[in-house]
Amino acid sequence: MSERILQTAIVTGAGSGIGRAIAHRLAEDGFLVIVADRAQAPAVETVDQIVSRGFKARSEILDITDPVATQRLIDGAENLQILVNNAGIFNVKAFNELTVDDFRRMYEVNLVAMFQLCQQAARRLPRWGRIINLCSRAAFGARNYAHYVASKAAVAGFTKALALELGDKQITVNAVAPGVIQTDMLLARSDVHLLRDQQPTGELGIPEDIAHAVAFFADKRANFVTGQVLIVDGGRSVGGTAAF
Amino acid sequence: MSFDITTLAGRTAIVTGASQGIGEAIAEALLAAGATVIAVDRERAGIDALAARRAGAIPVQGDITDPELTARLHSELSKSGLTLSILVNNAGIGRGSHAVETTDEDLQRYFDINVKGAFALSRWGVPLMIRAGGGTIVNTASVFGLVGAYNSAAYSVSKAAVVGMTRQMATDFGPSGIRVNAVAPGLIETSLTAERIRSEPWRRQIMIEQTPLVRAGTPLDIARAVRFLASDESSFVTGQVLAVDGGWTIGRFPRQEPVHVD
Question: Does the residue A236 lie in any domain?
Fold first, then answer.
């Protein structure tokens, strides 16, 4: 095998769930993956899993809302090719109980931190660089977490705006919008059976489903795809329910 | 955790309009991923050449508006002992027409070829896929079916119908384990678009100027998206329309320096 310069992919929130699956898939595709997470133990576990499979990864522990830490993360990534903005927060709160602080906190993590990382990364990304943002099916409407819905709708708009501005450098910017995905966080919910019943096929998605979509956008050869928000939800948002 | 599911080995695909351009590239991409491809086209030459250079390609000459086509495909499948699991409805026509000059006959013709042909093949193919335990349909729509496009009435209307068909069939067939998605190509350099560009030389330049990536795409760009949507990599994706357009649908704004307002 010929020696080639290893290219780097940063995946935020890669200590668990969807982020971990994305890290695995990009490592398998030949990237050195920087597993960025707030919590050390899960990040190290992701790295150990990847390395034990013979692929390359290392961890970086940081809070993505800290611009000094994110700048350090970007500066430390040699041959940065891909930034996957996966880290985010979610909580359920009915509209009546939502506070301005809830809203600000959601925006700070899900949108402002993403913006910061994109801006810092874009200065370093080469031609054919890739930015992939995690949006959500909920961006198009959902009950009981308006602050999350609004933050993810903002991610969709931000993705398109950034695709326009980075097009000249041939950097593509896309988003993946997961539907109901079987993560530990989701399976802990008491209404998980309802969510399953609402799926057209009666099946929930798995983190790997999202990882594959991210990998499609991340592929250097997907170089004519930009500004897209791909919904990965088993068809729920196109109106598909098994029976009514 | 393993992700080795990009392969299409053991699967059989039908690709319509496979003799040239985007369809030919789709057939090549599915063949490269290990699928057997029944390549359908009105024109013999392209699909015969494909079969000659590629093992696993089976040419079937036919017109998608011909009601007898499904019977021929059926006998081809059973003759070779193949089970259909991927259908790519790619065949179509397109050229410029202003709404005022578009006749009922034009609309009927575009609808027959771009919509009804794909609808009929899907209706025929889905029961076969269900028997095989699942399958996937990928339609070739167009960015002109997503946003308004000047001087493109019959084509735009027909491609918008393909988008609607994709979403509708995804809901009808989802519970049976059949996924239905579409790709929406932007400006792609093919012989078909070359012909169109000859008649409307302004269109290519304008589209490139409006495209954030400032260039046209290639048939391979579309083929890779189709391969993703046809494979198990996209097993939780259905009812979606993926634009492969260099950002054209999001970015049809004049390129300009930022205007600073105090």
Answer: no
